[in-house]
Design a protein that fits this description.
Blueprint (H helix, E strand, L loop, with lengths): L9 H10 L1 E4 L5 H14 L13 E5 L6 E6 L7 H7 L2 H11 L3 E9 L25 E6 L10 E4 L28 E3 L7 E5 L4 E3 L10 E8 L7 H17 L10
Antiparallel strand pairs: 1-8, 2-3, 3-4, 4-10, 5-8, 5-10, 6-7, 6-9
Length: 259
């Protein structure tokens, strides 16, 4: 349980509640980013885990060649003590606690590598309407590399979080139809290494392909309010694994495993 004190000023908290997101510049030092860079390189050497049947792994097509390429470890902190320290860092917990007005609990963690030419993600909300899924779900991005429009940075849409879940509440993941959002309310989270961004689980967002010619590695860390279930990361990942196995089986993929 976090007892971290809030770290955001009132103007930043108000901005978050109005827009559904905020950016904190330079939250992590250059030395800390360098350590995360080295750690991300190490994790990319874990080819023993990179199997399309391993439900820890996510994959994305190359928009030039069409090749299916490794993109993400989800979860990641059990593979990396350094990523776990970042996930439980008082600066992040304090920022999320600020927007909650109470302590934050780690719920989910993943490292998206997004190699050059990797396809982006369609418009969606992170919230999934499972009975056990916390409505207070908030995600924090920690930038290891520059995240821009060119590198396929996350584009968020201002103010829609106040409408709650915009997809059928059937417990499944759904992309959002593009017509549900006004393009004029979109904002690409332009992040430099060491910056963090915080956005609501109800904030619609998407990302384009990485056209930058270099990796765009971001650590995605998600939280829930203490009063919204407390610490439940282990429970979530057990449920998430079962849900993924069922989705894979729908496509005839019955040899899945978690490693």
């Amino acid at each position: 349980m976090s007892t971290t004190s809030p770290t955001l000023d009132l103007a930043s908290i108000d901005q978050y509640h109005a827009d559904g997101f905020l950016v904190v510049r330079g939250a992590f030092s250059s030395d800390e980013v360098s350590a995360l860079d080295i750690e991300a390189v190490r994790l990319m050497q874990r080819t023993d885990l990179m199997d399309t049947n391993n439900i820890r792994c996510r994959w994305q097509d190359d928009v030039v060649t069409g090749e299916c390429r490794f993109d993400c470890f989800d979860p990641v902190i059990d593979l990396s003590p350094l990523c776990e320290r970042a996930a439980r860092d008082p600066r992040i917990l304090g920022a999320v606690s600020s927007v909650y007005g109470e302590s934050a609990c780690l719920f989910k963690d993943k490292l998206i590598f997004k190699p050059p030419n990797a396809k982006g993600y369609k418009l969606h909300q992170d919230y999934i309407a499972w009975t056990s899924f916390p409505t207070s779900f908030v995600t924090v991005i920690v930038a290891i590399d520059p995240s821009t429009s060119e590198s396929g940075g996350t584009e968020v849409f201002r103010g829609y979080h106040r409408q709650g879940c915009l997809t059928p509440a059937d417990g499944n993941y759904h992309d959002l139809p593009e017509h549900l959002v006004d393009p004029e309310r979109g904002c690409v989270l332009d992040l430099e290494p060491g910056d963090i961004a915080v956005f609501s689980g109800y904030t619609p967002h998407r990302s384009g392909p990485n056209r930058s010619g270099r990796w765009r590695r971001l650590l995605y860390l998600s939280y829930n309010a203490l009063s919204d279930g407390g610490e439940q990361r282990a429970k979530h990942y057990a449920e998430f694994a079962e849900w993924l196995e069922e989705r894979y089986a729908e496509y005839g993929r019955t040899n899945t495993f978690f490693r």
